[in-house]
Amino acid sequence: MVQESDKTSLQALPSRELLGQRRVLVVGDVMLDRYWHGVVERISPEAPVPVVRVDREEERLGGAANVALNVKTLGARCTLLTVVGRDEPAVKLRELLHAQGVETVLRDDPKLHTIVKLRVIGRAQQLLRIDFENEPDHEVLGEMLDAFEQELPQHDLVLFSDYGKGGLAHIPRMIALARAAGKPVLIDPKGSDFQRYAGATMITPNRAELALVTGQWRGEAELKAKADALRAAINVEAVLVTRSEEGMTLFGEEGVCHEPAQAREVFDVTGAGDTVIATLAVMMAAGLSQDQAMRWANRAGGIVVGKFGTATVSYEELQA
């Protein structure tokens, strides 16, 4: 039976000074989130679709770049390792990352179209999303693995942000290297092959991602059985299932810990998983236990879904 955690036992937020001494290595698929905001006043005479008169454009860091920004915003030091193209979106990503103080190790692939997600917004509602993407070259991914080995010793924890875009082709080798070096490894997974995450410290699937791998469950007892079976099958210490309005549940070596959802108002869940795993990483790098880190991550997730689009949570917001 899943038991809710005792809220009175929430450990104090680590000091800014301590967080500033911790370094997190974020590896994964980056993207540029573009938003075209406009006004919808009529339907097109060419087809039964709304006409959006764009009056404002916005660009934000997405994917692993948003994870890295969340780590930095919380006060820890962060290095982002990824592959980008040699195109205008890559230039913009570099500018945004530099402006936010995120350290980067970027490998260029001249054949790669840097991932862009373009969202068209009318009257605060998302009307359309257009994706631009292709997979990186194998030679560049090999260079990324070499860079990972060089960066690993300088960091306290490794976070893999897998969006299934091909940037983590060498993740089994990277996990093995990190664990051999004694570094905790957190993974936000994607797809149906969780065996590629074998040996990690923790994976953080949402309900749909877990069901894709384990099948659906009926009730908490069956969910626990499936999560425990998955932990054993891929040799990970913990599975943290993010469950939207049901909160999140940690299945680990010391049993089960559940936190109910804390969101007062859900405006947009875009990027919420990025905030959750970034908070987990920062708190665990600062020495908090997995269940204590989960509680702070749950609080951060509750804050960020009240914001529009890919967003972050500051140290002050989390403390308040």
From TrEMBL:
Q: Name one Pfam family in it.
A: PfkB
Which UniProt keyword terms apply here? Kinase, Transferase
Q: Domain of life, per the record?
A: Bacteria
Q: Does the keyword NADP apply?
A: no
PROSITE patterns named in the record: PFKB_KINASES_1
Report the residue ranges that make up the Carbohydrate kinase PfkB domain in this protein.
22-312
Q: Does the keyword Secreted apply?
A: no
Sections of the chain in a coiled coil: none
For this UniProt entry, the molecular function terms from Gene Ontology, in alphabetical order, are:
kinase activity
Protein name as annotated: D-glycero-beta-D-manno-heptose-7-phosphate kinase
